[in-house]
Write a structure and sequence with these properties.
alpha+beta, seven-stranded antiparallel sheet, 12 strands, 32% strand
């Protein structure tokens, strides 16, 4: 196997290092986070840092990169209104979703600029991505400043879920392969999810465990 030590990693050209480090930790989620500013401008942007934090309460986090220089519309809108939607990305939206990472001006809606079809639901102050097979409504809960890289870890609570009923199993599991949800490899590699196997809840075999305690193995 090729061995890359810390000194060599730090010596790489910036883009090469970014591609390597963003790929080496494995596949990441691909989501479009949609918000609306207090002035009524809709924003939608791709995030690959959404992470499940817990089921009770239902929480997820995302990482807001250092603010400034045109970045942070999602973050600022969320702080102003407290509301956000999370939308899975199907293969049909990959090109437009990827382009949403560009730093558009605050008064420009990526929905309109990139021709991402928007869904409005009565009673909701934030937009949804119409083509998304899984759509979540969430609200701002908390944030933590990450002094190591000047990023912000933002915590959101899921309040409502909209999804295609065909992907929902009796035990609550979602077949995201069937949904067509894509994942991200690195910064710009997109892959369609495919479920190869689903296993039962892992438990320790009590009989074997007791034997191992007695024998010391």
């Amino acid at each position: 196997m090729k061995h890359i030590n810390h000194k060599e990693l730090q010596s790489y050209e910036r883009i090469y290092r970014a591609n390597l480090v963003n790929s080496v930790t494995g596949f990441k989620s691909a989501n479009l986070l949609a918000t609306r500013s207090k002035d009524g401008v809709d924003n939608v942007a791709i995030f690959s840092s959404v992470t499940h934090l817990g089921s009770d309460p239902a929480l997820f986090s995302f990482v807001q990169r250092p603010l400034g220089h045109g970045a942070g519309h999602t973050y600022y809108n969320l702080k102003e209104t407290g509301k956000i939607t999370l939308n899975h990305i199907p293969v049909s939206l990959v090109n437009a979703a990827h382009q949403s990472s560009a730093k558009y001006e605050k008064n420009i809606s990526e929905f309109e600029e990139l021709e991402i079809e928007k869904l409005e639901r009565d009673g909701y102050a934030v937009p949804f991505v119409k083509e998304s097979p899984v759509q979540l409504v969430a609200e701002y809960v908390n944030e933590y400043y990450l002094e190591e890289n000047n990023c912000i870890l933002v915590i959101c609570k899921i309040t409502e879920v909209f999804l295609d009923p065909d992907i929902l199993h009796e035990d609550g599991w979602l077949d995201l392969g069937k949904a067509g949800t894509v994942t991200i490899n690195g910064l710009d590699g997109y892959a369609a999810a495919k479920t190869e196997k689903r296993l039962s809840y892992a438990q320790v075999d009590k009989e074997l465990y007791e034997i191992s305690l007695k024998t010391g193995n």
